[in-house]
Amino acid sequence: MTFLPWHRRAPAPPALGATEDQEARHPLVLHNERMASRLKAVSFTVHIDGAWSWSQPDPPELQDPAATARDHLRRHAAKLLRQHSVLDSAAAHDAVNAALGQWSYATPALKCIGRARLETAPHDRELAERHARRQQDLSLAHEEELDRLAYLQQILADPDLRRVWWIAQFPDRFNDLGGLATALQGLPLPHNEAESDGIRSDILRFTDQLVTDLHTPQQRELFLRVLTQTLQTLGHHSLQGTADRWRTPPETESTPP
User: Is the pTM of this model over 0.70?
Assistant: First the structure.
């Protein structure tokens, strides 16, 4: 007598490419195929178990249909693996098997199907990791350089910051500052990438130039008067109220008699 429950053995999975009509299938195998990854110098090691079958009752004469089917599966797998990194072998495995796991036609009369298993040699993985680290370092250096240039642009586009920066960098060349200012005429302030596209960027550049050109109170008053009338015509009452408040000078404290 036993206290262990009785288990029914699970049925074996159907054979690769099995169909209801049990058409004649012929096995094929590819072992230790070297296929390039997204990096040409780094390869997957690929094993494919598959089958081929005629799709017509009276197939044409082929010298070696198995070789034709293997070549078809080999080319199909190689094309997909060139889109993946060996560092992401799970995604590569899924993509290849999703494609090879369906019947496809090597010729109009010859179809084949397959299942792939991927491996990566240690030196291939080491090369891929080294390349990934190098790309990461280059990307970081690129971002740092862009940040540095944007910071410098912000300084050079602002007359006050530019003057202080020039004095700090070249204290003995203050007389050359005028030439630098002339050379930098029209240099805009840096903007965020989200704001650098389309009409928003154009408006920001125009506003920067407008504010720079408004030197006198009379110019400011004229601009705000025109702006208020325009906003009133367009029906933007909240913006019109803001413009009106800008036009109203702050109340000055009365002096005691």
Answer: no
